[in-house]
Amino acid sequence: MCLLSIIEEEASYGYEMVSKLRDRGLHLASEGSIYPLLSRLQKQGMIESYLVQSSEGPARKYYRMSKPGLTALEQWRHDWTGFKDSVDAVLNGGGR
Question: Quick check: 53 and 39 in contact, CB under 8 A?
Answer without folding.
Answer: no
